[in-house]
Amino acid sequence: MATKESFSINGESIVKKVKELINEGSVTKITITNHDGKEMMSFPVTYGLVGLLMAPVLAAVGAAAALLTECTITVERKGDTPEEKEEITKF
Questions:
Q1: What angle is formed at CA 53 by the lines to CA 37 and CA 64, rounded to 5 degrees?
Q2: Residue spans of beta strands (DSSP E) within the chain
Q3: Helical (H) or strand (E) element with 26
């Protein structure tokens, strides 16, 4: 089962954090929500979705970052545990 982890982050750091998460390799999906909990964007991260294919996604994340002052990034990761883990980390 997948595990979930959430990060509360400001708009300036969104692109940097998304790039870090993509490079980790264990991330399967990234969802960005605004401070009201409304989903702004969600995209799958698969092994084949790297390099040139990620450029448009990162451009969209950058555009969203310009509009958001604070948001939450929720990450789904590959995992072996049956229960889902939810953590909130402040940056």
A1: 30
A2: 3-10, 27-34, 39-44, 70-77, 88-90
A3: none
Strands 88-90 and 70-77: unpaired
Condensed to tens digits (0 to 9), the pLDDT of residues 37-72 reads 899 888 888 755 555 566 777 778 877 777 777 889
Phi and psi of 75, rounded to 5°? -115, 130
From the centroid of its chain, how far is CA 9?
11
Residue 34 C-beta-side C-alpha neighbours within 13 Å: 9
Dig out the tokens for 57 from the structure: 């996604």
The strand pairing partners of 74, in sequence order, are: 6, 31
